[in-house]
Amino acid sequence: MTKMSLADISKKMRDIDVAMLSTHTDGGAIAGRPMSNNREVDYDGDSYYFTWSDSRMVSDIERNPKVSLTFQGKQFFSIAVEGKAEVVRDKKAFEEHWTKDLDDWFKDGIDTKGVAMIKVHADRIHYWSGEEDGEVKLKN
After folding, report:
1. Between 20 and 30 A from 107 (CA), which of 3, 21, 38, 139?
2. Cβ atoms of residues 101 and 60 within 8 Å
3. What span, in angstroms and rounded, lies between the C-alpha atoms of 84 and 66?
4. How many domains, in total, are found in the chain?
5. CB within 8 A of 103, min separation 6: which ones?
6. If 0-12 CB within 10 Å is exposed, 13-18 middle and 19+ buried, where does residue 124 land?
7. pLDDT at res. 74
8. Predicted structure pTM score
9. CA-to-CA distance for 45 and 5, rounded, in angstroms?
């Protein structure tokens, strides 16, 4: 059995656009929603997603930063990420991760009133590739 590295996982993630981002709600339930990773293909353990500052997801993260991400790729490739999220409201950081496709959602680009970015730093990544599975732990 070959163990995948973070670089191997990054290569496999290149064709996966949507992740399910799950948070803990104020009542203790788990809330999930699909989020586009905007084709950030050089995955290093950090993921970035744009949303609205007043969303439930943002308030969930501000209360409890522990989140999970799940990705489903081709040929039975799946990833489960456990990590910590933070809400970013810095336009300079937005510029580093902005893609033209986001203009469809946020009409004034990085200057759109109420836009926020979620950064998820992975602590642990579990993957399945066919019958092979494994885990990559990242340093904090």
Report:
1. 21
2. no
3. 5
4. 1
5. 109
6. middle
7. 85
8. 0.90
9. 11
